Amino acid sequence: MEVTFEVDANGILNVKAEDKASGKSEKITITNNKGRLSQEEIEQMVQEAEELTEEDRKVKEKIDARN
């Protein structure tokens, strides 16, 4: 029996077990999403940041025009 554990940069654990005698193997991926932002939440935050950046740019243009 050979068992391989791999952890990627995102903390995702991949485990593979292979029975050398029969050649049969199984794999499982274990993630820890608790306390992490979902992809949807990340995309929403990026969108909000882009909108606020545009608002800041407009305010700066008004201030620069007054000076």
TrEMBL record:
Pfam families noted in UniProt: HSP70 (PF00012)
GO molecular function, one term: ATP-dependent protein folding chaperone
Record's keyword terms, sorted: ATP-binding, Coiled coil, Nucleotide-binding
UniProt cross-references to SUPFAM superfamilies, sorted A to Z: Heat shock protein 70kD (HSP70), peptide-binding domain (SSF100920)
Keyword Nucleotide-binding among UniProt keywords: yes
Domain of life: Eukaryota
Coiled coil: 35-62
PANTHER family: HEAT SHOCK PROTEIN 70KDA (PTHR19375)
Protein name as catalogued: LUMINAL-BINDING PROTEIN
Lineage: Eukaryota, Viridiplantae, Streptophyta, Embryophyta, Tracheophyta
